[in-house]
């Protein structure tokens, strides 16, 4: 009983920390869990906006094999589902294309255009709005698209570390779509990397814990594109991917398939094992959790410097979830004591500073301490 409690609380804390894009629906029909999506090898964020990883996550210049390209039509409703996230910030969607073969496109370079954005609405960040909808978000593919294959990039930007340059965390997942459209080009288009700068006002927010008003926040990447322009959406020439070896295969066979609940529970043991062995204890303060972690990228340890839950951030209280994914109940404290990986201190922190027995409240920076 005691063991079970320990495992489940570690699991909840871990799942609520980092996040991945796992599933999408086209007009309410899904190709399946982690089907049609390039799953990254971990759920750690990209923090270097100048790296190729900012396009479609780690191994940016390598395309994975075994990822299906899913049919859609312009104007279709796309629903995405992410892991539970208590990291405040926006969600954006971009398309890259048309390309001859989405499965071979890295997405690195020019040819992206923004099609959807949800920032801060009615006092609530996009991540919390999604929490209230079982971590889903819906938008429509634009009309006036050239028929062809595209990468659909879903990005959740976590701003809980944005008070330092390079502290914002970009969670990115790319899906492969074959879109039937009526023709037309979209603009403005942007390059990734290229469009983001670590010092941009929507990425580096020095006063985010000190009087920042997110009401007028807009996510990076510029305005939402207008489609249907003349110029028929000429196909983007894509660079030859560097490798498609078995080392980067993330086929569905390597992925845990089951209901969301089943997958999350079964990933617990993996997460516990990994966090105790291969993750650098110096910089990584939350377990990397994923059922499909073949290796921890070297960038994971160094980039994961702000972690876990920031319940006091400018969000309204998160409504009770209707979904199946377990999640923490706000502060993560059980009564007056704070659970592992949850916030216990920092400037402007008004919650409990007492960790559960056996844990120590450890400062990560001036703004954030957590129980470890
Ligand atoms: Cu995280």
UniProtKB/TrEMBL annotation:
<keyword id="KW-0186">Copper</keyword>
<keyword id="KW-0479">Metal-binding</keyword>
<dbReference type="GO" id="GO:0005576">
    <property type="term" value="C:extracellular region"/>
</dbReference>
<dbReference type="GO" id="GO:0030245">
    <property type="term" value="P:cellulose catabolic process"/>
</dbReference>
<dbReference type="GO" id="GO:0046872">
    <property type="term" value="F:metal ion binding"/>
</dbReference>
<keyword id="KW-0624">Polysaccharide degradation</keyword>
<keyword id="KW-0560">Oxidoreductase</keyword>
<dbReference type="Pfam" id="PF03443">
    <property type="entry name" value="AA9"/>
</dbReference>
<keyword id="KW-1015">Disulfide bond</keyword>
<keyword id="KW-0503">Monooxygenase</keyword>
<dbReference type="GO" id="GO:0030248">
    <property type="term" value="F:cellulose binding"/>
</dbReference>
<feature type="domain" description="CBM1">
    <location>
        <begin position="336"/>
        <end position="372"/>
    </location>
</feature>
<dbReference type="InterPro" id="IPR005103">
    <property type="entry name" value="AA9_LPMO"/>
</dbReference>
<comment type="function">
    <text>Lytic polysaccharide monooxygenase (LMPO) that depolymerizes crystalline and amorphous polysaccharides via the oxidation of scissile alpha- or beta-(1-4)-glycosidic bonds, yielding C1 and/or C4 oxidation products. Catalysis by LPMOs requires the reduction of the active-site copper from Cu(II) to Cu(I) by a reducing agent and H(2)O(2) or O(2) as a cosubstrate.</text>
</comment>
<keyword id="KW-0964">Secreted</keyword>
<dbReference type="InterPro" id="IPR000254">
    <property type="entry name" value="CBD"/>
</dbReference>
<dbReference type="InterPro" id="IPR049892">
    <property type="entry name" value="AA9"/>
</dbReference>
<keyword id="KW-0732">Signal</keyword>
<dbReference type="GO" id="GO:0004497">
    <property type="term" value="F:monooxygenase activity"/>
</dbReference>
<feature type="signal peptide">
    <location>
        <begin position="1"/>
        <end position="17"/>
    </location>
</feature>
<dbReference type="Pfam" id="PF00734">
    <property type="entry name" value="CBM_1"/>
</dbReference>
<keyword id="KW-0136">Cellulose degradation</keyword>
<protein>
    <recommendedName>
        <fullName>AA9 family lytic polysaccharide monooxygenase</fullName>
        <ecNumber>1.14.99.56</ecNumber>
    </recommendedName>
</protein>
<dbReference type="GO" id="GO:0008810">
    <property type="term" value="F:cellulase activity"/>
</dbReference>
<keyword id="KW-0119">Carbohydrate metabolism</keyword>
<dbReference type="InterPro" id="IPR035971">
    <property type="entry name" value="CBD_sf"/>
</dbReference>
């Amino acid at each position: 009983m005691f063991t079970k409690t320990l495992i489940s609380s570690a699991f909840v804390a871990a799942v609520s920390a980092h996040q991945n894009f796992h599933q999408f629906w086209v007009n309410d029909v899904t190709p399946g869990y982690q089907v049609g999506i390039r799953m990254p090898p971990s759920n750690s964020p990209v923090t270097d906006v100048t790296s190729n990883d900012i396009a479609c996550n780690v191994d940016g210049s390598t395309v994975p094999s075994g990822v299906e390209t899913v049919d859609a039509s312009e104007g279709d409703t796309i629903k995405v589902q992410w892991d539970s996230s208590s990291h405040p910030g926006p969600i954006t969607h971009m398309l890259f294309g048309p390309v001859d073969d989405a499965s071979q496109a890295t997405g690195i370079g020019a040819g992206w255009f923004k099609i959807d954005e949800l920032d801060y609405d009615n006092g609530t960040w996009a991540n919390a709005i999604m929490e209230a909808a079982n971590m889903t978000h819906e938008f429509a593919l634009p009309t006036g698209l050239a028929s062809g294959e595209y990468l659909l990039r879903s990005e959740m930007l976590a701003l809980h570390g944005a008070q330092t340059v390079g502290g914002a965390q970009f969670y990115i997942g790319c899906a492969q779509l074959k879109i039937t459209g009526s023709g037309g080009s979209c603009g403005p288009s942007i390059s990734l990397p290229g469009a983001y700068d670590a010092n941009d006002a929507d990425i580096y927010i020095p006063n985010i814990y000190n009087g920042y008003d997110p009401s007028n926040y807009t996510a990076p990447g510029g305005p939402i594109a207008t489609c249907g322009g003349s110029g028929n959406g000429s196909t983007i020439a894509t660079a030859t991917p560097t490798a498609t070896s078995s080392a980067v295969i993330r086929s569905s066979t390597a992925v845990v398939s089951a209901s969301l609940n089943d997958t999350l529970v079964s990933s617990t043991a993996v997460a516990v094992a990994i966090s105790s062995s291969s993750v650098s204890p110096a910089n990584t303060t939350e377990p990397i959790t994923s059922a499909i972690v073949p290796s921890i990228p070297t960038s994971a340890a160094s980039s994961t410097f702000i972690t876990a839950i920031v319940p006091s951030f400018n969000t309204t209280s998160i409504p009770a979830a209707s979904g199946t994914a377990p999640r923490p109940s706000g502060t993560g404290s059980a009564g007056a004591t704070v659970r592992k990986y949850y916030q216990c201190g920092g400037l402007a922190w008004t919650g409990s500073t007492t960790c559960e027995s056996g844990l120590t409240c450890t400062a990560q920076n001036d703004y954030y301490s957590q129980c470890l």
